[in-house]
Amino acid sequence: MDRLWRGVSAAALWGAWAGGAMILLAAVVVTAEVVSRKLLSFTFSGSDEIAAYLFAVGTSWSMAHVLVTRGHVRIDVLYGALGPRARAAFDLVALVGLTILVLAIVDRAGAIFIDNLEGANRSNTPLRVPLAWPQAPWFAGFALFLAAAAVAFLRSLQALVRGDLAAASRIIGVPTQDEEVKGELGSLGIGTPDAGERR
Predict the structure, then answer these.
(1) Is 75 helix (H, G, I), strand (E, B) or coil?
(2) Residues with Cβ within 8 Å of residue 101, at least 6 apart in sequence
(3) At what angle do helices 2-39 and 132-162 cross, to 10 degrees?
(4) Which of 76, 135, 171, 190 is 20 to 30 A from residue 44's alpha carbon, by CA?
(5) Which of 69, 67, 77, 139 is nearest to 97 (CA)?
(6) Which pLDDT score is estimated for 198?
(7) 24 touches 13 (CB < 8 A)
């Protein structure tokens, strides 16, 4: 299970880097179009369409990394006052809810992709892009997110069955302030997390 988790984590990290690059490229495309329109009186049609595809794919590819690194937002007003067992139970329920939501998204995104692929549908724009082309990587990002959620659920459930609440917390729990600070410092090369906190 740990090997599978490392594989999903590596794919999620690659997806986050690629997704970030796509979102940055989308901003560059829109900026270039606005500047050329204002300064050169030249417009290239389809820049907004291309940027929208890049943004959608970049976002879906980044979601798994947020889950793997426990970067998702939670309302934890009550969470900190609970004991370790109650926190672990709430973490598991939250992950199950998220997994069900992602499963529904994957189902709908897959249906849209298959429908446009089989119908050879194209965008209703001057570019006439075959809609399945941008939808394939968009759907793949959600599928990776679902895989990460499923593996996280299995790993955390395995840890809870063993009674290892600390391991379950490292997989699906809300990061402590110390963990967040160490993570930020580590990303800047100032410090690295302790060996016990690495997943």
Answers:
(1) coil
(2) none
(3) 150
(4) 135
(5) 67
(6) 47
(7) no
